[in-house]
Amino acid sequence: HIALEVTKSILTEMFEKGKKNNIETRGISDHGFISSIYFRDPLGLLIELASYKFDPPFGYSHANVLEMAHKLRIKRGALNIEDVDVSLAIRNLSQS
Length: 96
Known about the structure:
alpha+beta; 3 helices; 4 strands; 43% helix; 21% strand
């Protein structure tokens, strides 16, 4: 599939446009650190529009935050990265 990063407002707008035009989606999926919608193009290719649920602190990337959040979720013994992991990762990076 193809995934494209969009803003939260674009994600919501595209979901609503899809509903109005009878484009089948799975709804807005919450993946812990991103929200996304999935739909198929006319040829059947799966398209994902994804929006990060956070902004990284100044001087850091989304990847930096997710790397730390991943380490924190492993330490917690959790299966997936959750909001608590992302929040703590941002806090830790902001203080370093």
